[in-house]
């Protein structure tokens, strides 16, 4: 590297630092916008109605008197709206189940 090339590279450093700072601020801003609601406002609960009863697929099938696969099919066809806590923990609101049973009969 020649002396001129090194000098030119040194002159470019302040512009690069400014560009990195600008990108860092943009990333921070995007992170703040996508921050979960509970972290932004911890006084408001995530679950709106804590008194609501939630049923597992097996509990629901036993209560309604059908096979759990029937519940899964109703979910797949859009008749029941599940609440997914993770891939293995799926629950149904009792009010949603009551609506589904009333619509079916």
Description:
This protein is mainly alpha-helical. The protein folds into two domains: 38 residues; 51 residues, Multidrug-efflux Transporter Regulator, Chain: A, Domain 2 (Orthogonal Bundle), CATH 1.10.1660. It has five helices and three strands. The chain has a three-stranded antiparallel beta sheet with strand order 1-3-2. Strand 2 and strand 3 form a beta hairpin. Helix 3 packs across helix 4. The longest helix has 31 residues. The termini are far apart.
Give the arrangement of secondary structure elements:
Blueprint: H1 3-33, H2 37-40, E1 54-56, H3 57-64, H4 68-76, E2 83-84, E3 90-93, H5 94-104
Antiparallel strand pairs: 1-3, 2-3
Helix pairs in contact: 3-4
* Helix proportion range: 55-70%
Using only C-alpha atoms, the radius of gyration works out to 27 Å
Tell how many strands the DSSP assignment holds. Answer: 3
Question: What would the average pLDDT be, to the nearest integer?
Answer: 81
Task: Return the domain count.
Answer: 2
Straight-line distance between termini? 83 Å
What oligomeric state best describes the polypeptide chains here? single chain
Largest sheet: 3 strands, antiparallel
| CATH fold label of the largest domain | Multidrug-efflux Transporter Regulator, Chain: A, Domain 2
* Level-1 CATH class name of the largest domain: Mainly Alpha
Q: Given the C-alpha coordinates, what overall shape results?
A: rod-shaped
Count up the helices. Answer: 5
Low-confidence stretches: none
Strand order of the largest sheet: 1-3-2
In CATH, the architecture of the largest domain is: Orthogonal Bundle
Secondary-structure element string: HHEHHEEH
């Amino acid at each position: 590297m020649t002396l001129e090339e090194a000098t030119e590279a040194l002159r470019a450093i302040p512009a690069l630092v400014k560009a990195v700072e600008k990108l860092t601020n943009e990333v921070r801003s995007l992170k703040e916008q996508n921050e979960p609601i509970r972290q932004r406002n911890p006084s408001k609960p995530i679950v709106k109605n804590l008194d609501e009863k939630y049923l597992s697929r097996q509990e629901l099938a036993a209560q309604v008197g059908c096979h759990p696969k029937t519940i899964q099919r109703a979910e797949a066809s859009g008749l029941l709206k599940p609440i997914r806590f993770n891939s293995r923990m799926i629950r149904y609101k009792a009010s949603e189940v009551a609506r589904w049973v009333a619509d079916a009969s």
